[in-house]
Design goal:
The complex is a heterodimer.
Chain A lengths: L15 E2 L1 H15 L3 E5 L9 H6 L4 E3 L4 H13 L3 E7 L8 H10 L5 E5 L17 H6 L5 E3 L4 H13 L4 E4 L5 E2 L14 E4 L4 E5 L3 H14 L4 E5 L2 E3 L3 H11 L2 E8 L4 H12 L4 E6 L9 H7 L4 H14 L6
Parallel strand pairs in A: 2-3, 2-4, 4-5, 5-7, 6-7, 10-11, 10-13, 13-14
Antiparallel strand pairs in A: 1-8, 6-12, 9-11
Helix pairs in contact in A: 1-6, 3-4, 7-11, 8-9
Chain B lengths: L1 H4 L5 H5 L1 H11 L14 E4 L5 H11 L39 H15 L7 E6 L6 H12 L5 E7 L2 E2 L2 E2 H4 L5 H7 L3 E6 L3 H13 L5 E6 L22 H12 L13
Parallel strand pairs in B: 1-2, 2-3, 3-7, 6-7
Antiparallel strand pairs in B: 4-5
Classes of the chains: A alpha/beta, B alpha/beta.
Chain lengths: 329, 265
């Protein structure tokens, strides 16, 4: 195990960048590596950072306008013509609005359409609940054939985009609007379907997807000061799930926490709960939105308000950790 | 086929039979023995529920044995109730939920026109008139109009029925010609039961180099079967054994005007 963490993750001036910025660079790289890569956007080209691709490959960029159903179905036709189409919008609209078209014309049709949903999670901020997509992980992971990737930081988002361009499968990439700390490095591994142990511990296993992994690292540091050694596992691919890595850490720790900036129901925590309840039943706690919508506010305020910071996660777990014995097989 | 399946749509496929005969035996540049022939024309079926007429045409054209038609909608069949690309070679896309075929055809046509630059190939898409209720269709119409996708040819089965009644009662579509023209399309209208007219309209459509073309094909739902014609109640149901016999007799005898070796059997 040799995941190279950014050594400055706990510094006050840790480098921060939105995951969507990494996507923009990754898409341009994918376009350089393979001229079958084309990009389609629904009137949000700079917001989703597709402008980098548009500037590099204007002939392979297609403006769709505010029409998310058309966005993914035109992409399906392009895929039939041998292209690798990346589509982007806000996650609230794609896959929020066009789920059926994605299911029928990309997933069931098994075409390598790439759905990129930006501005997912409450960090979207002042736009409020309509624009804070929280149900997308659940919606996309129940779809046969679909790959679901939630990058943890902008460096990983770049790698994930390049990898998704090559995987030959319908895929979803979930991105965030607001800048978040970079915890990986250019040398950190990324492979679709792999989870990575970032910190070893045996008192509790903390599984995070997307940018919540950073908050789990913060939580683990606070817990360590209280004498609790947490294992932190980064799970950037929600589907297919890296069952072996998750089961191994769960077995070692005997208690499990999942964290995602999304509905706690049916998403990443749901996926881990399904796995453990069938293979290795043990105490589990899901950090996520508790069956409610978001609201307007600054990203920092909202992450704190809804319990998505390392400190708030520790607060939420304190009681549970005290009362819940570790499970031993 | 439909009687054996015990479910499925009767009226639409019968009304589209002449158009599909024209497509598979004249209009489309295809190789049934090589479904993925890279130089082929494409046919997208947007109203996937009409796929029985496509399966029948494909079997006649040589994509597969005619006997396989009897497996329609049965467990393990390649002939799914609604078409699936991965199940049956020659089906260009999976469809069923209405309104998404035009976009896919437009995506393919965009690729031919702007990326692959293959002006000799054409993309056809058959749509129902009822499915023009779907917003996705008009998103695609706008898109194809903007990009002047001249290798895209839409065919609307204007049979005036949908499940809940006539199209003009359920959700009026007229003025259909004016609608498509205003989206930047070249519009043709034909008798969808006149095979020569359908072939000629497609020739004209291929010659239009500045815009996409849509052909409004006026058809009679249930065409050729007296008790099904014009009756929206036959949209989504199959005939029973007795009705199937009567229907085939109607079709084989021109409604009793001629004799046929299968007549009255």
């Amino acid at each position: 195990m040799s995941y190279s963490l950014n050594p400055d993750i706990f510094a006050e001036d840790v480098v921060q960048e939105p995951t969507r910025a990494g996507f923009g660079r990754g898409l341009r790289r994918a376009g350089e590596e393979d001229d079958r890569v084309v990009a389609l956007c629904a009137d949000l080209t700079e917001s989703t950072q597709m402008h980098l691709f548009r500037e590099a490959f204007p002939d392979r960029f297609i403006e769709i306008g505010i029409a998310e159903q058309n966005l993914v179905t035109v992409a399906s036709g392009l895929a039939r013509a041998g292209k690798i189409p990346f589509t982007s919008s806000y996650a609230a609209f794609s896959p929020g609005r066009n789920w059926e078209q994605i299911k029928t014309t990309a997933a069931l049709n098994n075409q390598p359409v790439k759905v990129v949903g930006s501005h997912a999670g409450v960090n979207t901020g002042p736009d409020g609940a309509t624009h804070q997509m929280l149900e997308d992980i659940a919606l996309m992971r129940v779809m046969p054939n679909m790959v679901v990737v939630v990058p943890g930081d902008s460096i990983e988002a770049e790698k994930a985009t390049v990898a998704v361009a090559k995987n030959g499968k319908p895929s979803y990439i979930r991105l965030a609007r607001d800048k978040t700390p970079i915890f990986s490095t250019v040398d950190s591994p990324f492979e679709i379907g792999k989870a990575y142990v970032l910190r070893e511990g045996s008192d509790v296993a903390l599984f995070g997807t997307g940018t919540m992994t950073y908050q789990l690292l913060v939580a683990a540091k606070i817990l360590a000061d209280r004498g609790i050694e947490a294992e932190v596992v980064h799970v950037p691919t929600v589907k297919p799930l890296d069952k072996n890595t998750i089961l191994a850490s769960a077995r070692r720790c005997g208690r499990v926490v999942t964290a995602e900036e999304a509905q706690a129901a049916a998403g990443f925590g749901g996926a881990v709960a399904e796995l453990l309840s069938e293979e290795l039943p043990m105490p589990l706690k899901r950090i996520g939105m508790q069956d409610r919508f978001g609201e307007s506010g600054s990203p920092t305020e909202l992450l704190d308000y809804f319990g998505f910071t390392g400190q708030k996660i520790v607060d939420a777990l304190a009681d549970w950790l005290e009362k819940t014995p570790r499970y031993h097989q | 086929m439909l009687e054996a399946a015990g479910s499925g749509h009767s009226a639409g496929p019968l009304g589209l039979a002449d158009i599909f005969a024209a497509l598979y035996f004249d209009i489309l540049n295809i190789r049934p023995e090589e479904p993925e022939w890279p130089e082929r024309d494409l046919l997208f079926l947007s109203n996937g529920h009409c796929v029985p007429v496509q399966y029948a045409s494909m079997a006649e054209a040589g994509y597969f044995e005619i006997d396989e038609l009897k497996t329609l909608r049965q467990l393990g069949s390649r002939l799914q109730g609604h078409p699936e690309r991965e199940k049956l070679p020659g089906i260009e896309s999976t469809s069923g939920p209405l309104g998404s075929g035009l976009s896919q055809a437009a995506g393919y046509a965009y690729s031919l026109q702007y990326i692959d630059k293959e002006p000799h190939r054409f993309v056809y898409v058959v749509m129902g008139d009822g499915e023009l209720n779907e917003g996705n269709i008009w998103e695609a119409a706008m898109f194809a109009g903007k990009y002047k996708l001249s290798q895209l040819i839409g065919i609307i089965d204007r049979n005036n029925i949908q499940i809940d009644g006539t199209t003009e009662d359920v959700m009026p579509l007229e003025d259909l010609r004016a609608k498509w023209e205003s989206f930047g399309w070249h519009v043709l209208e034909v008798d969808g039961h006149n095979i020569d007219s359908v072939i000629d309209a497609c020739s004209e459509a291929r010659a239009v180099s500045t815009r996409p073309t849509v052909i409004i094909a006026h058809t009679i739902p249930g065409k050729g079967v007296d008790f099904m014609e014009y009756n929206y109640k036959w949209h989504g149901i199959p005939p029973n054994a007795e009705q199937a016999k009567e229907a085939l007799n109607d079709l084989r005898t021109l409604g009793g005007k001629i004799t046929h070796e299968g007549a009255g059997v």
